[in-house]
Amino acid sequence: MLQKLTWISTSDIKDKRVSSNMGSLPYNGCTPNELYLIQYTSGATGIPKPVPVTAGAAAHNVRVARKAYDLYPNTVIVPWLPRYHDCGLQFLLLTIISGATSVLTSGVDKGTQPISLWSLKNLIIINEPIYKASVERFVEMFRHFGLSPSCTSPSYGLAENGTFVSTAWRGNCSNGESFPHIPSHNKLLPCARLASQREEEEDMDIIVVDEDTCELVVDGMEGESWVSSPSNCSGCFGHPSLAREIFQARVLSAQAIEESSKEKKGFSM
């Protein structure tokens, strides 16, 4: 299968030509609906599944992330995740979209070298769950290096939506308080920021539903996060039933749930 692929060299792209087993061919980029990459979902909460990401979905996802993190050409991005990780790749795409500078690093080991964090604007945190006390201890430990509590960016993402979904980061604060704009819930730092007063609402719908009934839960209750957006992937290779379950889910109304319950009990409708 790999022998049939067209390998693209960056030097060839400059001339809008690519080399293949058929010689030199014209190259005009890919369309939004063309397959961009296949990435595996995390195996932390289930069986890893390959999900296809189109070029349009990837472009939409990084545009939303760039806007959420307020990235511009004068931004310097310092990612440490490997480039084969979905977030590691996301940082490279964010660099391209925002015109920023990216300094690629490996995982940071403990050391004694002096560091300065006075210019740090965004410290993106993507582990699950994000404990408020742990982040506060980290901020307190690095406060004398210039780390501001306002730069912490608890964030959420998943491979089925490209990568990025939401962040609780709100920008700089003036009073220096810990997490002045990030409320906590059950000792956790939420990651959601659907829209702000100074931004237009993105075309990304996020709801929380009851995992068993597929009914919307009331605010403050735990549930399963559902995301509908142009960033959505287009299925699961080799798992058609899971693809229907994950990418074609629908919210049930209270009436539909009641009717379904009656049918199970043998009531005629």
Automatic annotation (TrEMBL):
Residues 26-112 form the AMP-dependent synthetase/ligase domain. InterPro entries: AMP-dep_synth/lig_dom, ANL_N_sf. This is DISCO-INTERACTING PROTEIN 2 DIP2 -RELATED. It comes from Salix purpurea (Purple osier willow).
